[in-house]
């Protein structure tokens, strides 16, 4: 915990991590620096409801791969969603907020996720539960900023430096050096 603040600030990066890659680590390190977070928790999903089971590596393998890649004392890799029995991000965030009431969570995502967010279960509730930080990604940033989620919550967009202490709903878009790593591309390259 840092002096001058009562609550610790934790960024949550959820996903399949199928496999974990340098792009995950890249935005985690940027979030620590730019959003003044104390830690980042990678929430490895047992099974993303929007992704097919076919082609999904076993949960234990994805968890181990994420742990091997994180390599940072302030990035924690977790299987909490499996432990909590939650399937949807909104439910995971609710459960985590109850379990860790003295923690201020900030939800982290790439621009590709902001664009698809309206497909998520109770997606507008996610904005009410935690500030959201969205990171630029090649080919996704401008479509995401013109998409339904960005338009609906446009008046609650704040500067990244204010995000960690902002009242919800609040979100920021961070135009940062883009990392082109993609789990789907990594899987495709691994195919014989």
Describe this structure as you would to a colleague.
The protein has 192 residues and is an alpha/beta fold. Helix 1 links the parallel strand 1 and strand 2 (39-44). Helix 4 (89-99) runs parallel beside helix 6 (123-129). The protein has helices spanning 22-34, 59-70, 80-84, 89-99, 111-116, 123-129, 141-145, 148-152, 160-163, 183-190; strands spanning 8-15, 39-44, 75-78, 103-110, 132-135, 171-174. The chain has one domain (8-190): HUPs (Rossmann fold). The protein has a six-stranded parallel beta sheet with strand order 3-2-1-4-5-6, with helices on both faces.
- Strand runs, count: 6
CATH class: Alpha Beta
Gyration radius over CA: 16 Å
- Largest beta sheet: strand ordering: 3-2-1-4-5-6
What percent of residues adopt helix (DSSP H or I)? 25-40%
Task: Give the class from helix and strand content and strand pairing.
Answer: alpha/beta
What is the overall pLDDT average?
88
Give a concise summary.
This protein has 192 residues and is α/β, with parallel strands linked by helices. It is built from ten helices and six strands, in the order E-H-E-H-E-H-H-E-H-H-E-H-H-H-E-H.
List the helices and strands and how they pair.
Elements: E1 8-15, H1 22-34, E2 39-44, H2 59-70, E3 75-78, H3 80-84, H4 89-99, E4 103-110, H5 111-116, H6 123-129, E5 132-135, H7 141-145, H8 148-152, H9 160-163, E6 171-174, H10 183-190
Parallel strand pairs: 1-2, 1-4, 2-3, 4-5, 5-6
Helix pairs in contact: 4-6
